[in-house]
Amino acid sequence: MKPDDFTIFANISLISWGLSGIIMSILFFREVFADKKHKFWVIVAHFLAISGLISIIIFVVELWLLLDRPPMRTLGETRLWYSIFLVLVSYLVYLKWKYKALFVSGIMFGVLFLLINMLHPEALNKNLPPALQSAWFIPHVVVYMIAYALLGMSWLVAIFGLLPYFRKQWKGRETVIADNLVYIGFGFLTLGLVFGALWAKEAWGNYWTWDPKETWAMITWFAYMLYIHYRFRHNKNKITALLILFFAFILLIICWLGMQYLSVGANSVHTY
Amino acid sequence: MKKEKRPFWVFPWGYRESFAVVITVAISGFALSFILQKEVSAPTWPNNIITGVILVAAILLFHIFFPKHSFVKWLSGSYAAISSISFYLFLIILMGFIPQNSNNSLEILNGSGLSHITSSHIFLFAQIYMFLVLGLVTLRRLERFSTRNIFFFLNHFGLWLTLFAAGMGSSDIKRFTMEINKNEPSFQGINSKGESSGDLGLALQLEEFSIEHYSPKAFIINAKTGDIMSENQIFSLEKNAKGNLGEWQIAVKDFIEYGIGMGEKFHAVYDIGAAPAAYVEAKHSSGNIVEGWISCGSFRFPGNFLELSEEKLLIMAEPEAKSYLSKIKIYTKEGEVYLADLSVGRPVSINGWKIYQISYDESKGKWSEISIVELVKDPWLWLVYAGLIMLIAGAVYLIITGSRTKNSEL
């Protein structure tokens, strides 16, 4: 199959998610301002979110078959995974906490990342260098993308907490969701870090070399560690916690997307 | 209720004291680096084990004899933990922005140790502080047994053990690269400073080197500058391949995996230095057709390109390696001989050494007569792995349970 034949699945996801997000945001505003509930449209939004997920999974499977290697080699390919996990996480968070605003922003970021990929298609390079042909490759990338999605959601939670705080009408609901997202996200972050170390030992003979990417992964890890310990100590002072959370994600973004703009990043063995 | 303000340095210590400690330690670290003008190297055997024992003894002594002392309570508490994490975070953020171990660092960065943070006094102090805090909090939690504390132990002691074993063991890691060939066994490698390894207790000889390549790719380049003009497009040169590059429609009419050019034509010849060659037809959108042989050539034979227009050339890039493998013979001091297959990501263990496939003579590619391997010995590795496995278990627990904060606290 040629990419032209299955790009349709990515388009379907893009449209379904976009519609799902729009419906949800309309419902959100109607609930807030008119206090009305619309059961039917909620179901439609659910249906669209799920069909978008199924469709994008078909797309990834087709891409994987076409490339004949895991589609995880390039930055663009990680964006694809990120959009999947972001939508999945925001959907699960919505199911648990019924937090519509979070669902809408999560799904919209998913749409944004998918859109970036579709507007800047990468060349379909089938080559996979020998060092990447490892059993650790897939788990390393996947757990990182899950962690990034969870922590990205926690960043949105932090913003949703900080905004009403500055308008002096905050109820403090956000930190509960943030704590859960960060604990789980931190767990995945730890797995990613450790898998990376084990992989590096098998492929290059070193488990840790302070490669710039490793340094930044460590920075990210410690930043979220700081949040967890701060929250443990100060259950009441939520605003500082949310600020830590906000800045921790900025560090994560530097680690993930910003390396190529840093002078130290030039010598990294990581392409993303 | 307003709390009465506690005077500075009176127990129990809080943030002020914790960060005052960290800042004092940081300043002394910088000062020491400036005065001594020396890098800190990790203690070598047996000094590392002595340092390790002293450190562990200090933690145990604090815990056993002064468990109620306010200083020990502070050191195993959240304030110290948060200050320790912040200290460490601060240093690695500096590392994230300041290029490390580069030759053209500013004087001020070299003097303060900021250009080589992991071997500076300040980093050493941050490590010791973290060892103390992590060690004491682990012991304190161990006294109260519960499932949750098991995972607290795994997360905290796992990190302690990983950092400890990696730090103490770093000077015991031996690492040598060795170039091996078919003619005779190699006995010695060289380290990163170019020093010879001396007798390693084993010798390696290359039996056979094989390499598999991906299909070579075609690019359009600027004839004057050599810049690739078809950057975001990939065209793999294979038999009967068709596709587009820029404004050109490319079709492969003939493909030779091992060929040598003679005059205008390439012939299939399997000889040292033979390189892939393709006969391609390029059709411009205006209808103009150009055809001819292209080849990336090799160290022995010249390649060929196709002139599409005055400023555009169609070239074949050297094929990228898909996998490479060295069949090697290992001779040990005891007179044993082993045969092993070595490839990237699949090291071979023998007599405490791990042997890695690193590289080959890349200018010769398939025809490389040597293989470059690395021998690594890390006697502390099992301890590092023990720590990492604890971290994995702790992480899985975090993922399953999430946070303790529940909706009821809303």
Please give a handful of descriptors for the protein shown.
heterodimer; A: 272 residues; mainly alpha; 8 helices; flat; B: 410 residues; alpha+beta; Tick-borne Encephalitis virus Glycoprotein, domain 1; 5-stranded antiparallel beta sheet; 4-stranded antiparallel beta sheet
If you had to describe this structure to a student in words, what would you say it looks like?
The complex is a heterodimer of chains A (272) and B (410). With 272 residues, chain A is mostly helical. Helix content of chain A is 76%, strand content 0%. In chain A, helix 5 (137-166) packs across helix 8 (238-258). The radius of gyration of chain A is 19 Å and the shape is flat. The two termini of chain A are 28 Å apart. The model of chain A has no long low-confidence stretch (mean pLDDT 90). Chain B folds into three domains: 15-172 and 383-409, no CATH class; 174-212 and 322-377, Tick-borne Encephalitis virus Glycoprotein, domain 1; 215-319, no CATH class. In chain B, a hairpin with a 4-residue loop joins strand 12 and strand 13 (337-343). In chain B, helix 1 (15-36) runs antiparallel to helix 6. The two termini of chain B are 23 Å apart. Chain B has helices spanning 15-36, 47-65, 70-75, 78-97, 107-112, 121-142, 147-169, 381-401, and strands at residues 174-181, 202-213, 217-222, 235-236, 242-245, 248-262, 265-268, 275-284, 289-295, 306-307, 312-316, 321-332, 337-343, 348-350, 353-360, 370-377. Helices cover 34% and strands 28% of the residues of chain B. In chain B, strands 5, 6, 7, 8 and 9 form a five-stranded antiparallel beta sheet that branches. Chain B is α+β, with helices and mostly antiparallel strands and 410 residues long. Classes of the chains: A mainly alpha (272), B alpha+beta (410). At the A-B interface, helix 6 and helix 7 of A face helix 4, strand 12 and helix 8 of B.
